[in-house]
Design goal:
It is built from 10 helices and 9 strands. The protein has 282 residues and is α/β, with parallel strands linked by helices. Strand 2, helix 2 and strand 3 form a beta-alpha-beta unit. It binds pantoate (PAF). Pantoate binds next to strand 2 and helix 6.
């Protein structure tokens, strides 16, 4: 595996790879866990070569979010990726992504609004901007993202269609199902912040969501079911619930009663850690 930190070298190496076969990109912010490795394995099955980017993108963190505390473990991550047969690791310094005078922002309306967009103003602009840049830098044939960040995936798909980044540029944007711990908690780099007591509380989230899904799937109105879900989470030990919503999976429009393609979306906080999860109704 080759680790690359300058755009000039990235362009040379990716051009050589593309002349021989297909290239998949797995964008990450590092602190890799089994969820990321699942994306890498899916990418390896689909393409001749896999590029993984590790870049903790400052533009997607709010002023009071955890940019400085975000775990950075490049040596460990690099060893893991080497074992997974990754061809190249793109690990640029911030100056290579946002050089002096950088002034462009990508903002995707509608799908960025509500859910995490309401609690994290500017977050999806930062995600769309960096992912567009990563697509232009690496120029992959396809890219892989985790479905745990379902809204992020919807924003990226919309941005790629709107800015003509899809075929023949990035042929396909693949969503890979959530990888869960044995007790059902969705894997996330932020789980590492949880104390053992908080970790035990966190496991209640997917359980409570499954119970709500059974009721919603039975035709109950979303309002009362979601209000009860939020109260239950707080009673179990969550400090607060940012949202518990039923929305259409494709365009993320809110729905009052389950429809085909509806998904349940929840974000809840324990101490300073914010956990998100989503599940389909079907
Ligand atoms: O999901 C992430 O890790 C990040 O939001 C991404 C897509 C790598 C952009 O920084």
């Amino acid at each position: 595996m080759k680790t690359i930190t300058t755009l000039d070298e990235l362009r040379r190496v990716t051009a050589a790879i593309r002349s021989k076969g297909s290239l998949a990109l797995v964008p990450t912010m590092g602190a890799l866990h089994e969820g990321h490795l699942t994306l890498v394995r899916a990418a390896r099955e689909a393409a001749g070569h896999v590029a993984v980017s590790i870049f903790v993108n400052p533009r997607q963190f709010g002023a009071n979010e955890d940019l400085d505390a975000y775990p950075r473990q490049l040596a460990r991550d690099s060893d893991l990726l080497e074992t997974e047969g990754v061809t190249l690791l793109w690990a640029p310094p911030p100056s290579e992504v946002y050089p002096e005078g950088y002034a462009t922002n990508i903002s995707v309306a509608k799908v960025s609004e509500g859910l995490c967009g309401a609690d994290r103003p500017g977050h999806f602009d930062g995600v769309a901007t960096v992912v567009c840049k990563l697509f232009n830098q690496v120029r992959p044939d396809m890219a892989f993202f985790g479905e745990k960040d379902w809204q992020q995936l919807a924003v990226i798909r919309r941005m790629a269609r709107d800015l003509d980044l899809t075929r023949p540029h990035v042929d396909a944007i693949h969503g890979v199902p959530i990888v869960r711990e044995a007790d059902g908690l969705a894997m996330s780099s932020r789980n590492a912040y949880l104390s053992p007591d908080q970790r035990a509380v966190a496991a209640a989230l997917p359980e409570a969501m499954r119970r709500a899904i059974a009721r919603l799937g039975g035709g109950e109105a979303a309002g009362p079911v979601l209000a009860e879900l939020s109260s239950e989470l707080v009673e179990t030990g969550f400090d607060s619930v940012d949202y518990a919503e039923l929305r259409r999976g494709g365009d993320l429009a809110p729905v009052g009663v389950a429809e085909q393609d509806s998904r349940l979306f929840v974000a809840a906080r324990i101490g300073r850690t914010r956990l998100i999860d989503n599940m389909p109704l079907g």
